[in-house]
TrEMBL record:
This is GyrI-like small molecule binding domain-containing protein. It comes from Agathobacter rectalis. It comes from the Bacteria.
Length: 88
């Protein structure tokens, strides 16, 4: 899981702080809704990848852009999957 932060955090034995990540040649699904239904967006993204015969080279990375504890249906999450640039 990737989580954006607005300052540097010390790494611990439970997580690593990455100042920057770079996923080249990725497809992304932008999801707005209750986190419990995020799997539906992931399934649609996987179907998109399969229909276009793309070759994933990473797992899906979730980036939480917005959370709302009072209205979780307003949560915003982007899901990134790195795709092979090779055309075979």
């Amino acid at each position: 899981m990737l989580m954006p932060v607005d300052n540097t955090i010390n790494s611990t034995d439970k997580f690593d702080f990455k100042n920057q990540i770079k996923i080249v040649n990725a497809v992304v699904a932008s999801y707005i809704g209750h986190p419990m239904r995020l799997q539906d967006a992931c399934n649609q993204l996987n179907q998109y990848i399969m229909e276009r015969r793309l070759q994933p080279i990473t797992v899906g990375y979730n980036v939480t852009k917005k959370t709302d504890m009072l209205s979780p249906e307003n949560t915003e999450i982007d899901v990134y999957v790195g795709i092979s640039p090779n055309i075979l």
